[in-house]
Amino acid sequence: MMRDAQTFEPQDGRLTRPAFWSALGARWTSDIEETLVCCQVRQETHDVKSFFFMSREGRTFSFEPGQFITLELDIDGETINRCYTISSAPTRPHTISITVKRVPGGKVSNWLHDNLRPGASVRVLGPAGEFTCARHAAGKYLFLSAGSGITPLMSMSRSHHELGEDRDIVFVHSARTPDDIIFARELDLIAANQQRFRTSFVCERIGARTNWPGITGFLTLPLLRLIAPDFMEREIFTCGPAPYMKAVRDLLEEAGFDRTRYHEESFSFESLSPAEQAAATDDAAEPADAGGADAQARFSVTFAKTRRDIECGAHEHVLDAAKRAGLRLPSSCTQGMCGTCKVKLVSGEVDMHHNGGIRQREIDQGMVLLCCSKPLSNLVVDK
Ligand SMILES: Cc1cc2nc3c(=O)[nH]c(=O)nc-3n(C[C@H](O)[C@H](O)[C@H](O)COP(=O)(O)OP(=O)(O)OC[C@H]3O[C@@H](n4cnc5c(N)ncnc54)[C@H](O)[C@@H]3O)c2cc1C
Ligand code: FES
């Protein structure tokens, strides 16, 4: 693991480290203080960096391990939102960190790696999300992750460790090669300190290493039975790329695992394949029958920039109608939490029920979240 920590250089006189200790009471929220300042960048692996943030005002952070924040970045004249899980633990409330893997061709992950330096300010929304062990207390956990999907489980592991909880946790992380394992040394340290915390790393191949004592291959049901013979008794949290999560779901289904004790989070943005788009266009001709006179009311939604018009039922979220019509719009949580689907409403009225993904100031300026807005009239959006 490479560790090239950069030191924090304050860029103005307002930010001082001692402010930490005098401000334990004041909590950060994106409504009060919408920017955070990057205070450290840490190289975790060859293509993964952690970015640490603090509040300029010295506020502390309150969140549940596994939750995410949304960064709002201005890149090439465009405002772009992306969600990143908080990889640090809430037990260290003075800073939060995110851990970002470069995605080949990806706009934001590469921009962060190449441009975000200590001292820079970033607009942040959140924390949000329900993928957290804090809401599913259990004596025994199984954490399954692959690639950058390790971040929420790392936050949960760090929390357990720092709280000195005596929970039985088996953490199985899959990576391409041993050199791609994020947080390998820290996980080993936690395992050394906590009697009932065990790690297993499963690597597709050994890469540049000549000696790799871990497992090579892919996670399978027989392998899981070997690593955690009692996995059927555990509360399971899974995070990773879509194919990995499907493989996990399939193997747990084969084992007959109780789905109510299975929790997962996907990092993938929802996007439509050409086949899905074709199917979507067919579906768009047959809007769902929600029943009732009001439910049959239909409104037009005009996307001014792309010059597309779609129809949206009164009881349908605009994002769902747009997807059904084959439009590719940025979205992530689809529950009004992350702000990814935020757009300016040029005209018309919506009924919006968000979960913190938009600030009151933005609502006052005519912004809406399409994933949780139903039309009350014909709409024109600036998209
Ligand atoms: C709740 C949540 C938590 C997350 N937590 C983390 C985390 O902790 N760490 C982390 O690293 N990531 C995390 N993510 C993923 C993160 O939000 C981003 O999706 C990721 O960093 C990629 O963003 P990007 O802008 O770099 O890539 P994008 O620009 O969105 O591109 C993604 C992929 O699509 C391809 N692509 C882009 N545009 C096109 C196009 N026009 N045609 C064809 N292909 C295209 C790119 O080549 C790339 O392969 C999380 C996501 C969610 C939803
Ligand atoms: S997709 Fe997350 S707020 Fe709409």
UniProtKB/TrEMBL annotation:
Residues 299-383 form the 2Fe-2S ferredoxin-type domain. In the N-terminal section; belongs to the FAD-binding oxidoreductase type 6 family. Signal peptide: none annotated. It comes from the Bacteria. InterPro entries: 2Fe-2S_ferredoxin-like_sf, 2Fe-2S_ferredoxin-type, 2Fe2S_fd_BS, Beta-grasp_dom_sf, Cbr1-like_FAD-bd_dom, FAD-bd_FR_type, FNR_nucleotide-bd, MRET. It holds the Pfam family FAD_binding_6. This is Hybrid-cluster NAD(P)-dependent oxidoreductase. Residues 31-134 form the FAD-binding FR-type domain. Keywords: 2Fe-2S, FAD, Flavoprotein, Iron, Iron-sulfur, Metal-binding, Oxidoreductase. One of its GO terms (molecular function) is metal ion binding. Its cofactor is FAD. PANTHER family: NADH OXIDOREDUCTASE HCR (PTHR47354:SF6). PROSITE patterns: 2FE2S_FER_1 (PS00197), 2FE2S_FER_2 (PS51085), FAD_FR (PS51384).
